[in-house]
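Why does residue order matter? Because the sequence determines the fold. Keep that principle in mind as you read this record.
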Amino acid sequence: MTTISSKNRQRTFRAIVPVPAVLALLLMLLPAGRADAQEQAMSDLSNQDFISFVRTLRNPQMLSANAGQLPIPRGARCGLGISAEAVRRLPTMPPDQADELRKLLSLQRRDISVVSPSGRFRIHFDTTGYHSPALLDENFNRIPNTAYAYADSVARIFDEVYEVEIGQYGFDPPPFRAGETEYQITILEFLGNYYGQTLFNAPLPNGGTVRNTYATHMEIDNDFLRYDTRGIEGVRVTAAHEFHHMVQLGMYGFWDTDRWVHEMTSTFFEEAVYPEINDYFQYIGTFMRKTDLPMYAWSPDGYELVLWPIFLEYKYGNTLIREIWEGMRQVEPVTATRDAIRDHLPVGGDVASDFCSWTSQNYFTGYRAERKSPNMYDDAAQLASVDPTELELVAESARMTGTLLPLSAEYLRVYRGLDSLTFVVSNSDITSAISRSGAGVSYELEVRRSGYDESWISLSNGWAYRFTASQPNALCVALLEGGTAAMVERDAPFPNPFFPREHTRLQFPIPRSVEANRADLYLFSPSMEKVFASENMAIELDDMTGAHVAWDGRGEDGDFVSSGVYFYVLQYGGETVKGKIAVVKR
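Structure:
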């Protein structure tokens, strides 16, 4: 027996520049390889030490003039964590310290500024000196006397970003700072540290959201010379990323304990606005190595989760991401995602099924991309690949066990010679994810070549498998590939029992071989009173569950039906299927 346990691989860190002795405490508290540990260390500093820390980070010349090293996670895109920590401290800081911190985070007006063609953005920059910007030549050398050209390019790029994120995706434009009618962008030398940062400190009054909203200003690098994506392309992806932070913070609220959703969405908009650049590739390898990390546990990062909104846009179109953020004005991110998918028009979906489909899709990247057609990722062949945990089938059976937290997945491969089966096991328990439950669900997956009965799922290569979990309906398992293995479909309604407050839809399976594309569904109480009827329903097809029609738990009066056992009649293509389901309201 092989037990699956969560992978614990370190992230790669980029050593940047020397720091002064005042940050020695921070550095001693920073375990290598953990961005969240860095955040914790920053929160453990005294107010004065935190101010000194911010002062150092805000002054690249001070950084470069001192001995020591400040580890920054490789690919750390923005300094959102600095403002987040400042916002946490400011309400309880002594007035003199609060004033000093606000001054450090205030807008840095430089020698000169230009306004974008639309009139929406004012770009501040120096024409000479340490912070002066420059275009790069084809060999990535700074081109002299191009400060104005760089600033003009920045201005045009922000106008492009605005037209996509506000004009095409329909997000509400962020508020201007008090007394201003332009968004303020400052160009500074960041020495290869943060690509840029969106800064804020004082919440806006009456935002109409459950979390505070903020008017913001932004800073970006002056040449993008020391980054994975250099020059003007670096400006483009940073503008798309940081401007959406301005949108999020200004109109939808700051979910400081769920920063993963902020970083995930901003990284998504890099690809949405500039799909040809692909800066996000740098994060996918980390994600593929840590698929067993729950989605909500990626904070303070979240760049690595960018494939989730890419998947959702492919399936539902470009309005769903905005609908999720509209929901986040009142509820936390996982709940908002569940509700937006359920209520999406013209046809809603089920977030648990979508999560299972997404984890299946994530297997078909890199060299496996061509094995799935159509592939939901345009860049699938260029993305890093997941590395399944492997176990050889010795004698007649192999057994793999593990435990999964909500919104996480494990990839498993059982092999014997050239024959193999590859599975993904996913925890799609949305209720536990919403409550941020720390309790994992254990499972067992056994594969046999012989000695199995009808309770096992048999495959056309002569093998069979059986999957069991400690909590019904919390986990889903999919057979991804395996030689001559047959496609597996559900043959009973799922989930059953159905919990209306936890599940969005109950699926009634229909064989894929059926030529009909419409079905009739009727539900009756034990006294044979009709509680629901829908004729000519569209038959849907899902990667995980196959063909089906779905019911949302509501009766003909539009309210959820009462707890109890119900009989169903399903008709399609001249066939009639009858059975029972249970509904549990709690």
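The two ends are 38 Å apart (CA to CA).
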